[in-house]
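assembly run, all chains below
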Amino acid sequence: MPASKTKGHAAVCPISNERVELLVTEIIGRVADKWTMLILEELEQHGTLRFTEVRKCVPGISQKMLTQTLRQMERDGIVLRTVHPVVPPHVDYELTELGGCLGEAFCGVWQWAEKNFARIEKSRAAFDKRAEKAATKTAATR
Amino acid sequence: MPASKTKGHAAVCPISNERVELLVTEIIGRVADKWTMLILEELEQHGTLRFTEVRKCVPGISQKMLTQTLRQMERDGIVLRTVHPVVPPHVDYELTELGGCLGEAFCGVWQWAEKNFARIEKSRAAFDKRAEKAATKTAATR
DNA sequence: CGGGATCCTTAAGGATACTG
DNA sequence: CAGTATCCTTAAGGATCCCG
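ok done. output:
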């Protein structure tokens, strides 16, 4: 169990630690988002993509969410957005180096999900069965 | 750049691959959640915690979200919930082995956030400055 | 084509009150 | 103590239209 998480930072950096932790937490909250992760994954796999291409790669995402998420990622320095001043417009998206690092960091989570999805499904089924039993029992009691 | 993400699964497993991908995506969506990650982190760091203790460790979480998230995690087999039949009630939460693995997988993301939060802040500031400039320019034009 | 602006609907999430 | 149940508010997110 690797111990160097947020707490490990304390000894190193003297600047207000609650602030750092809040910041890190906020970043985690921003980055640990469904669409962000999916877009990240696609850009990592395909390299550079245009707006419409990203949209095709991420099924189910609305144009609004795509724009919004890409903007956030651009703002955070995860994605590089290049506008080619031609008509009709041509906009390219690609990961920055920072974004690439994040992609690699998330890789472990993807692998975890891939490796364990069957276990998770089983656990869910078992949980639901127990819950159902409990429910019928409660119904019988009253 | 490790290439074995969802796509890498294709060659190994013959069962409907879209289904697997959907499942994995769904799991990612579930697990890549702010509260889930924070609770995971606390349980990994403290071992076993009671309901109220978790609540204290995760500032800002409402009791509703805490219950809800813990239930989801229990259902997914990430967290083990132990009820001691005493009065007043005593309920313990701890990570399962599966949960521990997930914690380790997420560790990379935490480290990424810790390492790069300054860069991200700078990127955001720069982005906002550019946006502001663009806005005043637009305002001047009309 | 790549969005911005607007409207509208659903759902996430907080506050409060009650219970075994 | 560790929840469940209810209400209520905010905001996420989809659909639509339009524009450079």
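Residues 50-52, 63, 67, 83, 87-91 of chain B lie near DNA strand D (CB under 10 Å from a C1').

Chain B touches chain A through 53 residues (CB under 8 Å).

not gonna interpret more than that til we talk
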